[in-house]
Design goal:
By secondary structure, the protein is mainly alpha-helical. It has one domain. The chain has 14 helices and six strands. A two-stranded antiparallel ribbon has the order 1-3. A two-stranded parallel sheet has the order 2-6. It has a two-stranded antiparallel sheet with strand order 4-5. Helix 3 runs parallel beside helix 7, helix 5 packs parallel to helix 14 and helix 7 packs across helix 12. It is globular and about 55 Å long.
């Protein structure tokens, strides 16, 4: 299995593309999931071959926690979107259990997609990226705290003007805690030590994944569309995403890293998992009521 699950992932992706091209209703509906999970499995296999270890093959329990955290993390942004109304879903299966399974599998790809991409880039880009060290990061903590709170609250209070700030609050609020509690995984600690290699690779990973998110979504039957309050943003698009919107993917990757590092140890506690499951069920229902614009009766 170690040798073949990467080529099998490519085969699944090729089959999904062929099914999409020939108009297969099932593959058109589920193309996004087939594409993303094929990408994740292939990159995991490639990372295993290049580095000797990978997130899924070497630590399946850790990968499961990563996927669970991914669902929770993305649903936090879906909660923000209940106020922002920046995106909506179309052609979602009408069967509740099928639909909720689709939500689960789709949202579980966010963190694995970014981090598998990051792992590959980290192996390919060996050179350090030296910068001027950030002196005494502790003195910046009030700035991070105030900025993070503003980035979380202003989009809720004034979504027409401040909706882009939602892609920065997690990094700003949580990174100081990571610096204190888990310095080895802190991006602020990297900057204090005069290296921007990890933040830069995460930024690039976010941009790469953003391109694939939008590309595969564009061709899928079940998909999302955007409605942004600034009309000029909607004039130039790459796939469904306004071109300027791609600027949000790099900082989103930093946000994902900070939120994962802050959260991952808590996922070993049963009460935390219970809260995540309860929150997920609540948000799935909210998506059905407020974010899905159109259901389809068959797939």
């Amino acid at each position: 299995m170690r040798r073949i699950y990467g080529p099998l992932a490519l085969l699944v992706f090729a089959s999904a593309v062929l099914g999409l091209a020939t108009g297969c209703p099932f593959l058109k509906t589920w193309f996004y999931l087939f594409a993303w999970w094929s990408y994740i499995f292939f990159l995991d296999w490639l990372n295993l071959r290049l580095k000797g270890t990978s997130r899924l093959y070497s630590d399946p329990k850790g990968f499961l926690r990563l996927s669970l955290a991914s669902i929770f993390l993305w649903l936090v942004f879906e909660w923000f979107n209940l106020f922002l109304k920046n995106w909506a879903y179309l052609q979602v299966p009408s069967s509740l259990w099928v639909r909720w399974l689709g939500y689960t599998l789709a949202f579980a790809t966010v963190l694995p997609g970014i981090f598998e991409t990051y792992d590959l880039l980290e192996h390919l880009w060996k050179r350090p990226l030296r910068i001027r060290p950030l002196s005494t990061p502790l003195r910046w903590f009030p700035f991070f705290a105030i900025s993070g709170l503003l980035c979380a609250l202003l989009p809720l209070a004034y979504p027409h003007y401040f909706f882009p700030l939602v892609w920065a609050w997690g990094f700003l609020l949580l990174e100081p805690f990571n610096y204190i509690l888990i310095p080895s995984a802190s991006l602020l600690k990297d900057l204090e030590e005069g290296t921007a290699r990890r933040p830069a690779l995460l930024l690039l990973s976010g941009l790469i994944c953003g391109f694939f998110w939008e590309c595969w979504n564009y061709w899928a039957g079940t998909k999302w569309i955007y409605t942004l309050p600034w009309a000029w943003l909607m004039k130039i698009k790459l796939f469904e995403m306004p071109l300027a919107g791609y600027l949000g993917f790099p900082p989103f990757a930093l946000e994902c890293w900070s939120m994962w590092i802050f959260l991952h140890k808590e996922l070993q506690k049963k009460w935390v998992i219970f809260i995540i499951v309860l929150f997920s069920i609540t948000m799935f229902h909210a998506l059905d009521l407020h974010t899905v614009l159109k259901f389809q009766k068959s797939f």
